[in-house]
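A reminder from the course coordinator: this example appears on the midterm review sheet, so study it carefully.

Given structure:
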């Protein structure tokens, strides 16, 4: 096992995502959206640039019919910002 990814689900709007930690030398990573999970996986070297971009494209496409004011979009925007930083690090 390379890492454990846990989906943060809450009744409250915009739940805090705990910081990652190591347990027995393995990353324990928390995420809100699939983009967040893919971004963290890319940071760990488990997903390629292309794989992360595909998750981003799919997530945005899946939400096309959802209002931009919906919490799904708002949570996705936070994770898209993190993903953008991750993608820029691939270019270095």
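Designed residues:
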């Amino acid at each position: 096992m390379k890492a454990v990814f846990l989906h943060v689900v809450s009744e409250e709007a915009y739940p805090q995502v705990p910081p990652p930690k190591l347990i027995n030398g393995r990353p324990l990573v928390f995420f809100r959206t699939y983009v967040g999970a893919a971004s963290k996986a890319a940071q760990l070297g488990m997903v390629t640039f292309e794989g992360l971009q595909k998750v981003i494209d799919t997530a945005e496409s899946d939400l096309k019919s959802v209002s931009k004011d919906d919490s799904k979009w708002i949570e996705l925007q936070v994770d898209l910002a993190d993903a953008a930083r991750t993608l820029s690090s691939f270019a270095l």
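Helices lie at 34-43, 49-62, 71-90. The CA atoms of residues 28 and 58 lie 25 Å apart.
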